[in-house]
UniProtKB/TrEMBL annotation:
Gene3D superfamilies registered for this protein in UniProt: Alpha-ketoglutarate-dependent dioxygenase AlkB-like
Basic and acidic residues biased stretches: 1-12
UniProt name for this protein: Fe2OG dioxygenase domain-containing protein
SUPFAM superfamilies: Clavaminate synthase-like (SSF51197)
Recorded family membership: Belongs to the alkB family.
Domain Fe2OG dioxygenase as annotated: residue spans: 146-256
Domain of life: Eukaryota
Gene Ontology CC terms: mitochondrial matrix
InterPro entries associated with the record: AlkB-like, AlkB-like_sf, ALKBH7-like, Oxoglu/Fe-dep_dioxygenase_dom
Record organism: Capsicum baccatum (Peruvian pepper)
Record region (Disordered): 1-26
Pfam family, one: 2OG-FeII_Oxy_2
GO biological process: DNA damage response; fatty acid metabolic process
């Protein structure tokens, strides 16, 4: 708890409030509602309020549906468009390593800030309820830079991505921002011969809505494959098939250090 407070102080400056007032202020502004470790609300000093959902079956998988406002989504889309990466119809993916475009650096900072506040809210909840909740581990949050690799994917309505675990040349801690078409991402456990009891067909669906952010770390990053199958008949949510349109995703990762 003290450690988190000192991190928040380091990032946002020393509060002139007394200890009690500071606690009261943060309680009022950052922690609201946690049901069985599944939902968490936090309001940052930047005025944004964010709701997080943990996918209970998968450790290290968090979804923030309201990460980007409609306005922020259109700004992000126009920054991507201005890169001119998708001007040729043959091109549907762009990758950058090291120095990322300004808008991607800003996006990374805003992911960092939102997690920082939400982790703080989670710590307050942990403190009060005795439950352990962590949206993104501190060592990943404070690495420098937080992300140094970017992939922007543009998918036409029936296109998606096959089941995979992201390459081991990337560190733990992956963030994906989803834009345009809503879709369902499915997670399936990496096959493991030593635990043959698991149903190989079992898939965990996660609804990605425009402007949402997903975080994958730990088990979610290493022990689960993720995929998006947008072929007819697969994109079903609550019994309804979701109409598929063009979709753009922004994936941020950190390359492993090579010595
Ligand atoms: O488009 C997405 O949301 C997923 C992208 C992805 O999984 C990847 O690039 O490794
Ligand atoms: Fe991936």
């Amino acid at each position: 708890m003290e450690e988190v407070k000192s991190i928040v102080r380091e990032a946002f400056g020393e509060s002139s409030n007394s200890e009690g007032e500071e606690e009261e202020y943060l309680n009022a502004h950052s922690a609201e509602n946690l049901e069985n470790g599944k939902r968490l609300s936090s309001e940052s000093v930047f005025g944004g309020s964010h709701n997080w959902e943990s996918i209970t079956e998968i450790d290290g998988l968090w979804l923030c549906k309201d990460f980007l406002s409609t306005h922020q989504q259109s700004n992000l889309l126009s920054s991507i468009q201005q890169e001119g990466w998708f001007a040729a119809s043959s091109s549907n993916q762009a990758m950058r390593f090291g120095d990322l475009p300004g808008w991607a650096v800003e996006l990374s900072s805003s992911i960092h800030e939102v997690i920082l506040f939400s982790n703080y809210a989670a710590e307050l909840e942990n403190y009060e309820t005795g439950k352990e909740v962590c949206i993104f581990p501190q060592d990943l949050l404070w690495r420098e830079p937080i992300f140094d690799q970017l992939i922007v994917n543009m998918y036409q309505p029936t296109e998606g991505i096959c089941p995979h675990v992201d390459l081991m040349r990337f560190e733990d801690g992956i963030a994906i921002v989803s834009l345009e078409s809503t879709c369902v991402m499915h997670f399936s456990r990496v096959e493991n011969d030593t635990c043959g009891v698991q149903d190989p067909q079992h898939k965990v669906p996660v609804l990605l809505t425009p402007g949402c952010l997903i975080l994958m770390w730990g088990e979610a990053r290493y022990l689960w494959k993720h995929e998006i199958n947008r072929k007819p008949g697969i994109q079903i949510w609550e019994g309804q098939e979701i109409d598929q349109k063009r979709r753009i995703s922004v994936t941020l990762r950190k390359l492993c250090q090579t010595e």
